[in-house]
Task: structure prediction
Amino acid sequence: MIFAQQPYLETFEWSWPTWRFWENDPVFLIIQVVLIFAFLLVAVMLMVWFERKVVSDMQNRIGPNVAGPWGILQTLADGIKLFFKEDLIPDQADRFVFKLAPYLSLIPAFLMFTMVPIGGNFADKNGEAELFGHTFLVQLVDPPMGILLFLAMSGLGIYGVMLAGWSSGSKYPLLGSVRASAQMVSYEAALGLSLAAVLLASGSLSTHDIVAEQVGGAEVLGVEISVASWNIFGLGFIPFIVFLIAGTAELNRPPFDLVEAEQELVGGFHTEYSSLRFSLFFLAEFMNVVTMSAIMVTLFFGGPDGPILWDAIDWFWPILWFFSKVIVFLFIFVWFRATLPRLRYDQLMDLGWKVLIPISLIWFLILAAIRVGQDEDWNIFVVIAVGLAGGVLAMSLLMGAIRNARLNRAESDVLEYG
Amino acid sequence: MTIAEDAPTTDAPDTGFVGDASRVMSRDNAVLRLSEAEAGALSLDPEDELGESKMIINMGPSHPSTHGVLRLMLEMEGETVLRSKPIIGYLHTGMEKTGEQLTYLQGCTNVTRMDYASPLFTELAFSLAVENLLEMEIPERATWIRMMMTELNRMASHLLFMATNGMDLGAVSMMIYGWREREPLLRFFEKVTGLRMNHNYIRPGGVAADLPDGWQEDLIEYLDAVEPRLEEYDILMTGQPIWRERLQGVGVINEAECLALGATGPILRSAGSSWDLRRDMPYLAYDEVDFDVIVGSYGDSFDRYAIRLNEIRESMRIVRQCIEKMPSGDYRAQNKKVTPPPRARIDESMEALIHHFKIFTEGFKVPVGESYAAVESPRGELGVYIVSDGSSTPVRMHVRAPSFVNLQTLPHLMENGLLADAVAVISSVDPIMGEVDR
Result:
C-alpha cells in the first residue's frame, strides 16, 4: 500500500497498474495475512523436520523420533528450548545493531513469500479461485514490480547477516559477515541475470503474469505437451540451472554455506547469538529455503499449473501441484546438504564471477537474439547457430584470458619466491 | 591420480637435501616467534608491526575442527593465514612419567591410552621393546594375531580419518559413513579383547587371549561388506570435483622438507618417499605377507587422503592373508617368569600360584639395558624407548609419537593458505592429541 501511493509508479505503463490484493475487503485481507504468516511458520517447522529426517535417512540414522509421531514436533520442542534459554549479549557487541540484526534477516524472509501465487485456476480462470462466494487471486499481493521485490528483499536479508557478524565484536563472526557480503553481492548478479531471461519470456515483472504466460502447453514436433510451455523448457535449462546454483548460494545452503561454515568459523555470523535471537536467524534461514523453492517453481515450473482433475474443487488442484513441486526442490536442497563438500571461499568467487555470470549473460543474449529474430522473421535456425557460435567463442576467449592471468600470476609468484 | 592444472606445484629447485632443509629450518616465518602475551598486545595495538589489516585469531583449543584440543594461533590477513603456531599441552597427562611407576605388565594399560584411535599400535611397540630386553621368542600364532589385529586397527583408524576429513570439508554424511564402517571393527575388537578401545590386548610375551571361535567368518563377512563401500567413497569423494578442488594443491610439502621436519607415515609417503617400516624394517611377520606401499607424488592433502584410502585396501589384503595363513599354536610364550600360568594350573600347582601372584604384584624383572622398538602406526613411525635397571619398572620410558612430530609440519603446510585450507591441512595431518601431549 505504501508503494502504491508513490507517484512515480504511475508514470510507468504497467500491464497491472495497481496492486491486486485477494479482495479489497480489509477483514478478508487481514485473515489472509494471518493465514500466510501461520502457514510460513508451520512450513518452517515441517521443513526443519523434513531436512533432519531426510538427511538422517541418507546417513543410515533414524533421526528425530521422540516428539510427536515420527518426531514431527521436534522443531517445536527445540523452539521452546531456545525460547527459555538465557539471552546473551557479548560485552564487545554493538548492542543496538546486535539486537536489530535478527529482525533485518527475518522480515524480508516473510515479505518475499507474499507475492508468490500458491494456487488459482490458471487453466481457464486466469489464476482466480472461487471459495466461500469470493473470487480472488491465491496470492497475498501481486505488486507490479513483482519479482524485483524478491531481489530487493533477498538483498535486504544480507544486512541481517552482515550486521549480525559485525556487531558481535568477535573475530569468527566478523569473518563470517565479510564472507556473507562478498558471497551475496556476487551471486545476486548471477541470480538477476538468469531472472532477466525469464522476464524476457514473460514480458512482465508480475509473478501472476509470469505464471499465466507459462500455462497452456506447447506443440513439440506436432505433439501437444502441457508442460512444454514452462519456462524451464522454453528458456533451455541454462537459466534454471544458474538460478538453482545462485539461489543455493544466496540461501547460504551447502555446498555454499561458507558464512556459517561450522568447521571453519564455528558458527559464522551467529556464533555469539543465543536464545530467541538465534532462533530468529534459524527461522529466517529455513523460511528463505521454502521461499526460494516457491520462487523457482513460479519462475520455471509454471507455479500452480497442472491438470484440474475435478472441476468442483478446482481451487484445490493448483495448490496441490504447487506444493508438490515445492517439495521436490526442498528435497533437492536437502540432498545437496547430505552429499556435497563445502567450496572454498576463492572457489566460490570463481564459480560466481567466471562461470555463472558469463554463462547467464551469454544465454540471455542468445535468447534476446531469438526474440528479435522472431519479430524480424529471420531464419530461426541460423539465429540459434550464430548465437551459440558467438557464445562459445566469447566463453572460450574468457576462459583463455582467465587461464593467462592465472599463469602470469603463478609466474610472478615464482619470481617473488625465488 | 592426476592433479588439476591450476594446482600450484612445488617450485623448490632440486638442490638436494641440505639446501632444502636449511630453507625450511631457517625461514623466519615458519614459526610464529611471539609469546601469546606479545601477540595479544600486538593485536590490540593497531600502530604496531601487525598493522591494521592483520589479526591474530585463536583457533582452539575448543574448536570443531582442531581434532580435540589442539590450539593454533593464526596470524591472518583477511582470510589468508600468514603464519601459524600450534600450541599443545591441553591434554597432557604425564603418561611417560606414569610409565616409570608401573610394572612392565601394567605398562600396556598405560601406553594404550596415548593414541586412542589406534591403541593396539602403542601396545605393540611397547611389548616389542620389552621383549627385546627380555630376549624372548614369541610363538608364531601370537605374532600373526598381533599383525592381524594391528592391521584391523589401522583400518579403523583410517576409517576414522575418512570420517573426520569428510566432515572437516563439509561433507557431513561422510562422517557417519566412516563411523558406520568402523563400528563392526570395534565390535570385533570387543569380541576379541573385551574392550572397544584401550584394549591392553598385546602384552609382553604375546597377546592377552586367543581369538574367539568363528573369528574367520566374522572377518570375511566384514571385509566383503566393506570393499564395495570403499568404492562408494570413491564416488562420493575421490571423484567429486569439489572434493578434488578443495584438496589438490593444498598443504604441499616435498620430501626434503618432510625429512627435515621428521614427518613420517602418510605425510612422508605423499611427498613421494616410499618409506614404510612394515616393508623397510620388517617386524612381526610382515616379510611373509604380500602388500603394497602406497606412495603419492604431489605431497598435497589429496595425496594424503588417497594414500589412507588405499592403505585401507592394503590392510584388507594383509588381513585376508592372515586369515588364510594363521598358524596354530600358543597365543603367548610359555615363560613362567613373564606370562601368567593358565587358570586351571593355579588350582593344582603351588608353583603356578606363586608365579601368578608374583607376576601380578611385583611384576617380572627385566635385564639391565635399553631398547627402542618402532612400528608403522597409521600416523607414521611410532617408537617406544625403554631403559631398564633390572627392576620390574622401567627407569625411563619415552614414546616417539608420530602425531607429535607430524604436528611440526602444520605451520609449513598452512602458510599462505586460506582459513578453509588450514582446516583441510589439520585434517590431513590427522593428529591425535592424546598421543601429542602424552
